[in-house]
Specification:
Keywords: Cytoplasm, Magnesium, Metal-binding, Methyltransferase, Pantothenate biosynthesis, Transferase. The protein has eleven helices and eight strands. It has 267 residues and is of the alpha/beta class. It has one domain: Alpha-Beta Barrel (TIM Barrel). It has an eight-stranded parallel β-barrel, surrounded by eight helices. The longest helix is centred in the middle third of the chain and has 17 residues.
Length: 267
């Protein structure tokens, strides 16, 4: 019996049922087949590829051509999982530029959702995209494309003012039409509050156990970035005999609530 492909409506229904969403980054067809076959719900073609595949120190050098290429590779192998693709640095500097580049990710790359970083300054862009039928995943908290402005990869929302700004931006992004949200590196209590408040699914990375789902960089959860993996990640391959078993273990841990544990929730 065939399984219906996952859509943004599927993820919204999972949130409504209280069923955790398991997501991983993915950059090529071979991993896409494996992740999809094991039951990953959402494959994020992240601009993190600039760091884990290309060897850059940040995501800033990643281009639209890079993103289209890798998104197309993932989409060709997709059977069930939702494919979300990042708009890279400055690819959405204006609403018109965002519209043109989102069209490339969907038409050339086969993405079903595009993701962009930022809060209030991006509201007009999100509205413009959604008005044209393009599903958007917002990204708040730590914004890796802004690493040069913020001075490093640091947890966000730890003081009252910044936490309030993230709360405000989360609601505003939902009101602007975003279908999903990624919260990165924010305190668990703040992420839990936002997840309860919003009607759209909230996917956490370094944001505690109470989001509607979890996402990790696939290379981190396979222990391939030893010594450089973030504190909120876990090496699932170390205790398994194969990559497939490790991914299955991750999916099961997210579904059961066993990941992230207290040790993987710094704040």
């Amino acid at each position: 019996m065939s399984v219906a492909p996952i859509s943004v409506a599927t993820l919204a229904a999972m949130k409504g049922r209280g069923e955790p969403i398991a997501s991983l980054t993915c950059y090529d067809a071979s991993f896409a087949r494996l992740l999809d076959g094991v039951g990953v719900d959402m494959m994020l073609v992240g601009d993190s590829l600039g760091m884990v595949l290309q060897g850059h120190g940040t995501t800033v050098p990643v281009t639209m051509d890079d993103m289209v290429y890798h998104t197309a590779a993932v989409a060709r192998a997709r059977g069930r999982a939702l494919v979300v693709a990042d708009l890279p640095f400055l690819a959405y500097a204006t609403p018109e530029r965002a519209l043109n580049n989102a069209a490339r990710l969907m038409q050339e790359g086969g993405a079903q959702v595009v993701k962009l970083e930022g809060g209030a300054p991006m509201l007009e862009t999100v509205r413009r995209l959604t008005e044209q039928g393009i599903p958007v995943c917002a990204h708040l908290g730590l914004l890796p494309q802004s690493v040069n402005r913020i001075g490093g990869y640091r947890f966000q929302g730890r003081d009252h003012a910044s936490a309030e700004a993230i709360r405000h931006d989360a609601l505003a992004m939902q009101d602007a039409g975003a279908s999903l949200m990624v919260l990165e590196c924010v305190p668990a209590a703040l992420a839990a509050e936002i997840s309860r408040t919003l009607s759209i699914p909230v996917i956490g990375i370094g944001a505690g156990p109470d989001c509607d789902g979890q996402v990790l960089v696939v290379y981190d959860m396979l222990g391939l970035n030893a010594g450089r993996a973030p504190s909120f990640s876990r090496d699932f391959l170390g205790s398994c005999g194969s990559i497939e078993s490790a991914v299955r273990g991750y999916v099961e841990a997210v579904r059961s609530g066993a990941f992230p544990a207290e040790a993987e929730t710094p704040y």
